[in-house]
DNA sequence: GTCTATATCTTGATAGAC
DNA sequence: GTCTATCAAGATATAGAC
């Protein structure tokens, strides 16, 4: 975690203040884009003055990167855990559905961090993006493995371009923060619809209900 | 078109310069986000100095809004035209595929305007977003009609939430600018994969190849 | 029509008091 | 640890020459 060099324990006031700042930054980043997220606004939302942020972070960029990274890692953790909890004999296509559900729930249930990460991926300055690349690739490989398993077990429709299909599915999920909050649709409906679309979209055979 | 109040014909130098400025803004907005798009960079890309922009636009915001609106309208025009060119007896599900293809081609073939529009939808300041809402709703209704037709003709799987399915499909397409440029996949592969996923994802019956 | 020069405003960041 | 006060940088926007 990229904090300033001030040593301190997890139980004191300081840690709570940093958490407030981080959470405020996550909320603002999840609503607006990186560039419109002003330090002053973040500080106000956290109930401190702007300079207080510099006690915890060396720069605005460091704070933003911390938030996005936490969101990224949090999503991966959720999805990975959901998959690992599955029975060893679960069909690969079913695993993909579980990943779809976990990714969606991370985005909309877990916290502002995940939404902040997704909505700002394309807006990161170059160096930040490069530092983040390793995390992104690792998460991408989680999905890649699922798709390869499904293909190897003959569950995918023949001729499907694996990588393209994978990125289209993830894209459908990652775009949901742009519209779901305004919609009157319950999260359950979003989850089941996304699973249905994905399963039938990818499956080689008509899918049992 | 939101230009300044200086009257002039379409054939003179002035119109060409404005077009250069607008195109430069579109390119920069399609690469970075709204907030990192500096007026100076746009001017440089257009081959003028920053103050020259104010001969054509009253403010930075007006220029950006012009670009996004053109992209939005351009996408809708492409999709609408592609659908209207179809034979009257085309199945509704096939129409949706044509819309998917047209939307993707508008994004990746047509111009920077469309990509600029999609990548910056979520970053617009409040008032700009409100002014743009009518255009967005109109485009949404184009898709909505397609989905309703498909449902009414029994081509959609029963129990599918129409609006959610529609927004997931469009989301998958709108997210492609985040990754497709780096990918080594030809546009044709992207188009056919997206059509396949959509068709099988939505269809009530196994789809003929 | 487009430029140079400059005014003005916003915001990230620092200094130092408490 | 957090604040007030302030600086420095960078951006939008304007004035006025050409």
TrEMBL record, chains A, B:
Q: Does the keyword Transcription regulation apply?
A: yes
Q: Which residues bind DNA?
A: 38-57
Q: What organism is listed for this UniProt entry? A: Nocardioides marinisabuli
GO terms for MF:
DNA-binding transcription factor activity; transcription cis-regulatory region binding
Q: Which residues form the HTH tetR-type domain?
A: 15-75
**Keywords attached to this entry:** DNA-binding, Transcription, Transcription regulation
Q: What is the top-level taxon of the source organism?
A: Bacteria
Q: Which PANTHER family match?
A: HTH-TYPE TRANSCRIPTIONAL REGULATOR BETI, HTH-TYPE TRANSCRIPTIONAL REGULATOR RUTR
The name under which this protein is listed is AcrR family transcriptional regulator
Transcription among keywords: yes
**Residue ranges the record marks as coiled coil:** none
Q: Which InterPro entries match?
A: Homeodomain-like_sf, HTH-type_TetR-like_transc_reg, HTH_TetR, KstR2_TetR_C, Tet_transcr_reg_TetR-rel_C_sf
């Amino acid at each position: 975690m990229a904090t300033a060099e001030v040593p301190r324990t997890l139980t004191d006031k300081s840690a709570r203040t940093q958490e407030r700042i981080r959470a405020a930054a996550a909320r603002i980043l999840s609503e607006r884009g990186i560039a419109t997220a002003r330090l002053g606004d973040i500080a106000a939302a956290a109930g401190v003055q702007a300079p207080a942020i510099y006690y915890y972070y060396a720069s605005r960029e460091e704070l933003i990167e911390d938030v996005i990274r936490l969101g990224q890692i949090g999503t991966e953790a959720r999805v990975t855990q959901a998959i690992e909890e599955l029975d060893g004999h679960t069909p690969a296509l079913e695993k993909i559905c579980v990943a779809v559900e976990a990714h969606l729930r991370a985005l909309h249930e877990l916290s502002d961090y995940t939404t902040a990460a997704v909505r700002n991926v394309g807006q990161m300055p170059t160096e930040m993006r490069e530092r983040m690349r390793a995390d992104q690739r690792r998460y991408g490989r989680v999905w890649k493995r699922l798709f390869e398993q499904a293909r190897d077990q003959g569950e995918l429709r023949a001729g499907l371009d694996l990588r393209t299909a994978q990125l289209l599915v993830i894209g459908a999920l990652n775009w949901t923060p742009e519209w779901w909050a305004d919609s009157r649709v319950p999260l359950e409906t979003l989850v089941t619809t996304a699973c249905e679309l994905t399963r039938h979209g990818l499956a080689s055979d008509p899918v049992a209900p």
